[in-house]
């Protein structure tokens, strides 16, 4: 497993992110490919790519994916995962989305998976209007708004709060504008959009739940310090009291917002 330096809100979460975050529904990725008619002679841009959660599966449909993230550990993890899966057409760029060169395009599609809230959305949309080719567009991928909270989540949240105090998952996001739609409406180029939901179900064991907790920036394992083992012990006990078998079905809604670039 690779390691690298770099300080960000997601420091130390990269090894847990790909393994334990609920994956996006494959049907959602397939929908993006179909909606934008992606082929091997096209390029895709994935902003806030993390360890390649979208970039790697998207690489099977296009000739090249440029995957951009400001976190060095995420880039290193993504590069390692891509190489282990034989994906040589993903190019990794350590950068903020706002800093990407306007000469990097053109791209048929730009994807942003659960990261738009970290960005200056208006600035990014202005850049994407230049980077995305005519006939292409943007796809925002997020956990669906109708996703039910699983029985293990409030229990885990309570125990995390006991050890770390009240936490917010996205302390550096845009609290004054939590939804993405207003930025799209303001945009000259992406103001017409549609939302689509794709349900899927995964099964988690206790190890997966602990890993999921550690994949979140506000509950990364180093934040627990010497209390990490005590936290895990208490969480395991609480989870087994909920389900002695230690297995939990998780119903995941993947939301895809499709925003085609307006024709010039």
From TrEMBL:
<keyword id="KW-0489">Methyltransferase</keyword>
<dbReference type="GO" id="GO:0008168">
    <property type="term" value="F:methyltransferase activity"/>
</dbReference>
<feature type="domain" description="Methyltransferase">
    <location>
        <begin position="45"/>
        <end position="136"/>
    </location>
</feature>
<dbReference type="GO" id="GO:0032259">
    <property type="term" value="P:methylation"/>
</dbReference>
<dbReference type="Pfam" id="PF13649">
    <property type="entry name" value="Methyltransf_25"/>
</dbReference>
<dbReference type="InterPro" id="IPR051052">
    <property type="entry name" value="Diverse_substrate_MTase"/>
</dbReference>
<keyword id="KW-0808">Transferase</keyword>
<dbReference type="InterPro" id="IPR029063">
    <property type="entry name" value="SAM-dependent_MTases_sf"/>
</dbReference>
<protein>
    <submittedName>
        <fullName>Methyltransferase family protein</fullName>
    </submittedName>
</protein>
<dbReference type="InterPro" id="IPR041698">
    <property type="entry name" value="Methyltransf_25"/>
</dbReference>
